[in-house]
């Protein structure tokens, strides 16, 4: 072994020729050709120590709450106050949710004109979450054990005795966190953890909007409603409907609708006249008028308008996925992915010869979701 100078800095030692560094007499444990630069950085191959010295942990500095029970009590109250603040904010959130009109706005310093509802919900939810989080951090910093421990590397699967020890330590976690000794924290924490989820759930459930009630299964059609052309909205006399013709029809009451598009999307109807002898089911003949029949225009597959009428075959075709309905068989599905026939609207004529609905639709129109009856 010999020592020599290098351009990098202090000479550490030389290799033994087998790639294994060995001591050169220096007490730092570096061997072979490694060169130690400033701040202990080592450069060169084969010169790294087999094991770095364990720097150890800094000495544990006891906290005020470790030394003084009064200090611990004070910290406990602070933690409880933060958890209590969180619970209170959640209660205020719920009160604000029900008490403040969402349309109400007002001037808020620093913000300007804003929705009081949004501001109240935002501030109370922030306080609820903040109280919970800050309380937990303060609790960990002041009262929970803060001694650091080192676990040496080991095979991934721990020894059985270690696993048992971990289980027992986890089971005893509440004890070490002093939950038993500090019931104030225990109960305030329970409140702070149990209530904030309500602040998230409430707007989610409330924000789903009003219940649909029967709006999905009913249309505007009612007994006595005149059939009017779409889009002209002129009434139709029975003698104007010739064999082979087709009319796109809406209820006359659509003019009073506040949601025209939604109502039209459900109430649209196709009106056709067939030779009564071509109509096979007696029910279809009874629900029509001298061969004039009316069927929902909304495809029972996924709701496209069934817009194509083939007058020779009396087939109605939905252009979306080619579902085909046979008008001579009560609009039974004869091809395509639809599962239900188109619902028939029962019609008749009024005293002036105009076509009117004799009853609302007897079943829901449109796609067959939610098992709304089958063919
Ligand atoms: S929507 Fe009519 S076939 Fe698909």
Describe this structure in words.
- It is found in: Cell membrane.
- Keywords: 2Fe-2S, Cell membrane, Disulfide bond, Electron transport, Iron, Iron-sulfur, Membrane, Metal-binding, Oxidoreductase, Respiratory chain, Transmembrane, Transmembrane helix, Transport.
- The protein has about 375 residues and is α+β, with helices and mostly antiparallel strands.
- It folds into 3 domains: about 1-50, no CATH class; about 65-145 and about 160-205; about 225-370, Rieske [2Fe-2S] iron-sulphur domain (Rieske Iron-sulfur Protein), CATH 2.102.10.10.
- It has helices at about 65, 70-100, 115-140, 160-170, 175, 185-195, 195-205, 260-265, 280-285, and strands at about 35, 40-45, 105-110, 110-115, 225-230, 245-250, 270-275, 290-295, 310, 315, 325, 330-335, 345, 345-350, 355.
- The strands form 5 sheets. Strands 5-6-7-8-13 form a 5-stranded antiparallel β-sheet. Strands 9-10-11-12 form a 4-stranded antiparallel β-sheet, with no helix packed on it. It has a two-stranded antiparallel ribbon with strand order 1-2.
- Strand 1 and strand 2 form a beta hairpin.
- The longest helix has about 30 residues, at about 70-100.
- It is elongated and about 100 Å long.
- It starts with about 35 loop residues before the first strand and ends in an 18-residue tail after the last strand.
- The structure holds FE2/S2 (inorganic) cluster (FES).
- FE2/S2 (inorganic) cluster binds next to loops.
- The site of FE2/S2 (inorganic) cluster has 11 residues, from loops.
């Amino acid at each position: 072994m010999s020592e020599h100078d290098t351009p990098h800095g202090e000479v550490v030692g030389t290799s033994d020729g087998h790639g294994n560094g060995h001591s050169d007499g220096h007490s730092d444990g570096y061997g072979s050709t490694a060169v130690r630069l400033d701040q202990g950085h080592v450069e060169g191959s084969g010169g790294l120590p087999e094991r770095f010295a364990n720097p150890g942990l800094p000495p544990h500095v006891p906290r005020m709450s470790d030394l003084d029970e009064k200090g611990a009590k004070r910290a406990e109250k602070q933690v409880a106050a933060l958890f209590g603040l969180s619970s209170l904010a959640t209660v205020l959130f719920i009160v604000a949710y029900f008490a403040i009109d969402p349309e109400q706005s007002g001037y808020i310093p620093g913000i300007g004109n804003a929705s009081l509802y949004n501001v109240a919900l935002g501030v109370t939810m922030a306080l609820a979450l903040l109280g919970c989080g800050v309380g937990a951090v303060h609790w960990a910093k002041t009262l929970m054990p803060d001694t650091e421990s080192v676990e040496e590397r080991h095979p991934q699967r721990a020894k059985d005795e270690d696993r048992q020890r971990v289980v027992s330590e986890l089971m005893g976690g509440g004890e070490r966190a002093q939950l038993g000794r500090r019931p104030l924290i225990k109960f305030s924490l329970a409140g702070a953890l149990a209530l904030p989820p309500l602040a998230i759930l409430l707007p989610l459930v409330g924000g789903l909007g009003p219940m649909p009630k029967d709006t999905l299964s009913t249309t505007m059609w009612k007994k006595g409603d005149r059939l009017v052309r779409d889009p002209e909205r002129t009434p139709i006399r029975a003698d104007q409907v010739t064999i082979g013709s087709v009319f796109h029809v809406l209820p006359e009451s659509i003019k009073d609708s506040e949601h025209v598009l939604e109502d039209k999307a459900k109430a649209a109807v196709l009106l056709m006249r067939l030779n009564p002898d071509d109509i096979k089911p007696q029910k279809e003949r009874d629900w029509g008028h001298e061969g004039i029949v009316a069927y929902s225009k909304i495809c029972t597959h996924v709701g496209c308008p069934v817009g194509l009428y083939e007058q020779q075959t009396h087939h109605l075709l939905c252009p979306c996925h080619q579902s085909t309905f046979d008008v001579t068989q009560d609009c039974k599905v004869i091809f395509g992915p639809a599962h239900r026939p188109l619902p028939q609207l029962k019609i008749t004529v009024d005293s002036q010869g105009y076509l009117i609905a004799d009853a609302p639709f007897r079943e829901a129109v449109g796609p067959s979701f939610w098992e709304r009856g089958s063919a």
